[in-house]
Amino acid sequence: MYVTSPEGVDKKHTVVELDESQKGPNGEGYCWYQCTVKGGRETRDICAVSVAKAAEALGAGEIMLNCIDMDGQCNGFDHALMGAVSSAVTIPVIASSGAGKEGHFSDVFQKTNVQAALAAGMFHRKEVEIMSVKKHMEECKIRARIIG
């Protein structure tokens, strides 16, 4: 949910400042990440940070965080969302949705506190090889398990 300012937003929502590349359709510089269900077809009046905190309090061991807006776009992970959630919880956060090239992995690890990241489409479509991502990660001094 894009907003022009954090003021006036219900305090139950965590408002995140957006960088230039993520500004809203009317130039909004802030947002809160509204949770959805049913593949994004239905919204709920709760933010992703609140859901992550509640899941941790209920005993979740990790959060696999999907940004439906980035899913399949191949433009990279949503750093604002990944950063907000990974900074709000102590359990591991796995970034999901948006990867399209090797650099998207190093970016999400360098710019947020996530502990893992995943991709599917770019590998299934054979646009990027898994070993290529792992080698890129190692070159960026980010540990990756390389076998063979």
Task: Provide an overview of this structure.
- The structure is a single chain.
- The protein is an alpha/beta fold and 148 residues long.
- It has 5 helices and 8 strands.
- It has helices at residues 48-57, 79-88, 102-111, 121-124, 130-139, and strands at residues 2-3, 16-17, 30-31, 34-37, 42-47, 63-66, 93-96, 116-117.
- Helix 3 (102-111) crosses helix 5 (130-139).
- The longest helix has 10 residues, at 48-57.
- It is globular.
Question: Can you give me a brief rundown of this structure?
Answer:
The chain has about 150 residues and is an alpha/beta fold.
Query: What composes the largest sheet?
Result: 3 strands, antiparallel
Tally of DSSP β-strands = 8
Structural class: alpha/beta
**Beta-strand content:** 15-25%
User: What's the tally of helices?
Assistant: 5
Name a few traits of the molecule:
single chain; 5 helices
Structural topology:
Elements (H helix, E strand, L loop, with lengths): L1 E2 L12 E2 L12 E2 L2 E4 L4 E6 H10 L5 E4 L12 H10 L4 E4 L5 H10 L4 E2 L3 H4 L5 H10 L9
Helix pairs in contact: 1-2, 3-5
